[in-house]
Every structure is written in structure tokens, then in C-alpha cells.
Design goal:
CATH architecture: Up-down Bundle
Shape: elongated
Oligomer: single chain
Structural class: mainly alpha
CATH class: Mainly Alpha
CATH superfamily: Ferritin, core subunit, four-helix bundle
Helix content: 55-70%
Number of helices: 4
Number of strands: 0
Strand content: under 5%
Amino acid sequence: MPSGPTVAEVLRTGIQRETESQKLYTDLGRMVTDPQAKYVFTKLFREEKRHQEILEGFLAGGIRPGMLKPDDVLDYHIAEHLNQPDVKPEMSLPDIFLLAANREKMSNEFYLGLAAAYPSGQPKRLLLKLASQELGHKQKMETLYADVAFPQTDGG
């Protein structure tokens, strides 16, 4: 009897997370008025959509060399990454960026955990690339957070 989620279940969870991220960034983009923040959330939405498409291809067997079988059982400790706080209209801009940064951190950890189960090869490289992109998203959110939480003053 399997003791953990299968590869297919993990990939479906990843697809769901990417879809949730798309919705989050669409919602946050509507909440903010700063043009730079709106642009960043639109860009993040597009990148998360691309991640969804990559995972869907992965699930459909589009990546073959070194591929784990969809019914292989793995333990990625995904439960640690599923709960997110609710987005509230009254959230401050710094809190919005912190929420998004935390989401990206969890996505980075998710892909690193998934990559750790693979031997060297195309699937592992793909998952590590996704992890790196999520870390880049986190950095963007932290930069926006710093810009609004600690605005530059005339005094330096």
C-alpha cells in the first residue's frame, strides 16, 4: 500500500498551486494602485501560467529521460506548503508584498523538494530552473516590500 503521494498527485498539486498563484497575483494586481506593482503582478501571473503549462506537460509524459513513473510514491512534505492566509481587501501594501514573497518562497521549496527526488537529467534540471525562477519572484516581492515599507527620504 502506498505511503505517500504519487508523482502524478504531486504534479497535480503543483499545477493547482500555480493556478492559485495566478489567481492571487490577479487579485493583488487589482488591489494595488502603484503602476510598478501592477506590472510586476501581471508579469508574475504570466510566469506562473507558464509554470502550470510546464507541469501539465510533465504530467502528460512530455519529458521522458529519467522520468519517474506517475504511480511512483514519494514523500515531499507538501502539507507544509499548502496553507496560505486569506487575502483581505484591507491589507497594507507591505503586507501584500510579504504575502506574495512568502508564497514564492514556498513555491521555491516545493520545486527543490520535487527536484531532489530525481536523478540527474532533464526533469531535475527543469524543476531546479522552476525553483530558481520562484526565488527570483520572491526577490522581486521583497524589493517591492522594501520600497514601500522603508521609503527613501530626502535625508538619505
